[in-house]
Design goal:
The chain is an all-alpha fold. The chain has a domain of 117 residues. It is built from nine helices and no strands. Helix 3 packs across helix 5 and helix 5 packs antiparallel against helix 6. The longest helix is centred in the N-terminal third of the chain and has 21 residues.
Amino acid sequence: MPCKGGYRKSLEENKRRAIEEREADRTDPFRALWRSLVNRVYNLPGGFESLSEAEKLYFAVGVLEGEVYNGGFDQYFFNSSGADYLYAEKGLLAVGAAEALELLRQAKELLFPTTVVPVDTKTRRQILRDDLEGKRSGQLDPKLDALNRDFWTDPDKLEARMQAFAREHGLVP
Protein backbone atom coordinates (compact mmCIF):
# COMPACT_ATOMS: atom_id res chain seq x y z
CA MET A 1 0.00 0.00 0.00
CA PRO A 2 1.50 3.37 -1.01
CA CYS A 3 2.40 5.84 1.68
CA LYS A 4 0.19 8.96 1.54
CA GLY A 5 3.07 11.36 2.33
CA GLY A 6 5.44 9.75 -0.15
CA TYR A 7 7.90 8.89 2.62
CA ARG A 8 8.36 5.29 1.52
CA LYS A 9 9.30 6.43 -1.99
CA SER A 10 11.72 8.95 -0.51
CA LEU A 11 13.31 6.32 1.73
CA GLU A 12 13.71 3.94 -1.20
CA GLU A 13 15.28 6.70 -3.29
CA ASN A 14 17.71 7.51 -0.46
CA LYS A 15 18.67 3.83 -0.16
CA ARG A 16 19.26 3.64 -3.92
CA ARG A 17 21.45 6.77 -3.83
CA ALA A 18 23.44 5.42 -0.88
CA ILE A 19 24.15 2.20 -2.79
CA GLU A 20 25.26 4.19 -5.84
CA GLU A 21 27.50 6.38 -3.65
CA ARG A 22 29.14 3.34 -2.05
CA GLU A 23 29.73 1.83 -5.48
CA ALA A 24 31.24 5.07 -6.77
CA ASP A 25 33.46 5.26 -3.67
CA ARG A 26 34.67 1.75 -4.48
CA THR A 27 35.23 2.19 -8.22
CA ASP A 28 35.93 5.86 -8.99
CA PRO A 29 39.71 6.49 -8.80
CA PHE A 30 39.23 10.25 -8.35
CA ARG A 31 36.98 9.73 -5.34
CA ALA A 32 39.52 7.32 -3.89
CA LEU A 33 42.28 9.88 -4.48
CA TRP A 34 40.27 12.65 -2.83
CA ARG A 35 39.39 10.54 0.21
CA SER A 36 43.01 9.49 0.56
CA LEU A 37 44.23 13.10 0.41
CA VAL A 38 41.63 14.29 2.91
CA ASN A 39 42.53 11.46 5.27
CA ARG A 40 46.25 12.18 4.99
CA VAL A 41 45.82 15.94 5.46
CA TYR A 42 43.47 15.79 8.41
CA ASN A 43 44.19 12.48 10.14
CA LEU A 44 47.83 11.58 9.70
CA PRO A 45 51.03 13.10 11.02
CA GLY A 46 52.52 15.67 8.68
CA GLY A 47 49.15 16.65 7.23
CA PHE A 48 49.30 18.83 4.14
CA GLU A 49 53.09 19.01 4.29
CA SER A 50 53.32 15.23 3.87
CA LEU A 51 51.78 15.42 0.39
CA SER A 52 53.83 15.47 -2.79
CA GLU A 53 53.88 18.72 -4.74
CA ALA A 54 51.34 17.41 -7.27
CA GLU A 55 49.08 16.20 -4.45
CA LYS A 56 49.28 19.60 -2.74
CA LEU A 57 48.24 21.37 -5.95
CA TYR A 58 45.40 18.92 -6.59
CA PHE A 59 44.19 19.13 -2.99
CA ALA A 60 44.39 22.93 -2.81
CA VAL A 61 42.36 23.35 -6.00
CA GLY A 62 39.84 20.76 -4.86
CA VAL A 63 39.36 22.55 -1.55
CA LEU A 64 39.10 25.92 -3.31
CA GLU A 65 36.44 24.56 -5.62
CA GLY A 66 34.45 23.00 -2.78
CA GLU A 67 34.60 26.09 -0.60
CA VAL A 68 33.65 28.52 -3.36
CA TYR A 69 30.76 26.33 -4.51
CA ASN A 70 29.61 25.96 -0.92
CA GLY A 71 29.90 29.52 0.35
CA GLY A 72 31.87 31.69 -2.03
CA PHE A 73 35.33 33.19 -2.00
CA ASP A 74 34.73 34.82 1.36
CA GLN A 75 34.15 31.35 2.89
CA TYR A 76 37.28 30.03 1.18
CA PHE A 77 39.46 32.75 2.65
CA PHE A 78 37.72 32.71 6.06
CA ASN A 79 38.17 28.97 6.61
CA SER A 80 41.46 27.16 7.11
CA SER A 81 41.52 26.52 3.36
CA GLY A 82 42.68 30.08 2.78
CA ALA A 83 46.05 29.11 4.24
CA ASP A 84 46.74 27.22 1.02
CA TYR A 85 45.97 30.15 -1.27
CA LEU A 86 49.38 30.04 -2.97
CA TYR A 87 48.99 26.32 -3.69
CA ALA A 88 45.50 26.90 -5.09
CA GLU A 89 46.92 29.64 -7.30
CA LYS A 90 49.79 27.40 -8.48
CA GLY A 91 47.36 24.50 -8.93
CA LEU A 92 45.02 26.49 -11.15
CA LEU A 93 48.02 27.59 -13.18
CA ALA A 94 49.27 24.00 -13.43
CA VAL A 95 45.94 22.68 -14.72
CA GLY A 96 45.52 25.57 -17.16
CA ALA A 97 42.45 27.05 -15.49
CA ALA A 98 43.20 30.65 -16.48
CA GLU A 99 39.72 32.05 -15.87
CA ALA A 100 39.34 30.46 -12.43
CA LEU A 101 42.84 31.69 -11.58
CA GLU A 102 41.89 35.24 -12.57
CA LEU A 103 38.72 35.06 -10.45
CA LEU A 104 40.71 33.80 -7.46
CA ARG A 105 43.23 36.61 -7.85
CA GLN A 106 40.45 39.20 -8.13
CA ALA A 107 38.86 37.87 -4.94
CA LYS A 108 42.24 38.03 -3.20
CA GLU A 109 42.67 41.65 -4.29
CA LEU A 110 39.21 42.55 -3.00
CA LEU A 111 39.75 40.94 0.37
CA PHE A 112 43.49 41.45 0.88
CA PRO A 113 44.36 44.46 -1.29
CA THR A 114 47.43 45.60 0.61
CA THR A 115 48.91 42.33 1.86
CA VAL A 116 49.67 38.76 0.94
CA VAL A 117 47.04 36.29 2.09
CA PRO A 118 48.05 35.40 5.65
CA VAL A 119 48.69 31.71 6.22
CA ASP A 120 47.58 32.08 9.82
CA THR A 121 43.82 31.58 9.98
CA LYS A 122 43.33 33.86 12.98
CA THR A 123 45.13 36.74 11.25
CA ARG A 124 43.23 36.17 8.00
CA ARG A 125 39.91 36.13 9.83
CA GLN A 126 40.69 39.32 11.68
CA ILE A 127 41.45 41.14 8.41
CA LEU A 128 38.23 39.81 6.89
CA ARG A 129 36.16 40.78 9.92
CA ASP A 130 37.63 44.28 9.95
CA ASP A 131 36.86 44.77 6.26
CA LEU A 132 33.45 43.15 6.22
CA GLU A 133 32.30 44.97 9.34
CA GLY A 134 34.01 48.20 8.37
CA LYS A 135 33.53 50.76 5.69
CA ARG A 136 34.34 48.40 2.79
CA SER A 137 31.59 45.85 3.46
CA GLY A 138 28.98 47.47 1.23
CA GLN A 139 31.49 47.72 -1.59
CA LEU A 140 32.74 44.12 -1.27
CA ASP A 141 29.51 42.13 -1.24
CA PRO A 142 28.31 42.82 -4.81
CA LYS A 143 31.81 42.39 -6.23
CA LEU A 144 32.38 39.10 -4.41
CA ASP A 145 28.93 37.88 -5.43
CA ALA A 146 29.78 38.58 -9.07
CA LEU A 147 33.10 36.71 -8.77
CA ASN A 148 31.32 33.77 -7.11
CA ARG A 149 28.72 33.62 -9.88
CA ASP A 150 31.45 33.72 -12.52
CA PHE A 151 33.35 30.90 -10.78
CA TRP A 152 30.16 28.83 -10.49
CA THR A 153 29.75 28.88 -14.28
CA ASP A 154 32.89 26.70 -14.36
CA PRO A 155 34.49 28.54 -17.28
CA ASP A 156 37.53 26.24 -17.34
CA LYS A 157 35.71 22.92 -16.90
CA LEU A 158 37.77 22.40 -13.78
CA GLU A 159 36.81 18.79 -13.06
CA ALA A 160 38.08 17.59 -16.43
CA ARG A 161 41.29 19.58 -16.00
CA MET A 162 41.82 18.19 -12.51
CA GLN A 163 41.28 14.64 -13.72
CA ALA A 164 43.77 15.14 -16.55
CA PHE A 165 46.26 16.61 -14.06
CA ALA A 166 45.82 13.63 -11.70
CA ARG A 167 46.42 11.18 -14.54
CA GLU A 168 49.40 13.11 -15.90
CA HIS A 169 51.07 13.18 -12.48
CA GLY A 170 50.33 9.55 -11.62
CA LEU A 171 47.93 10.37 -8.81
CA VAL A 172 45.40 7.87 -10.17
CA PRO A 173 45.93 4.61 -12.06
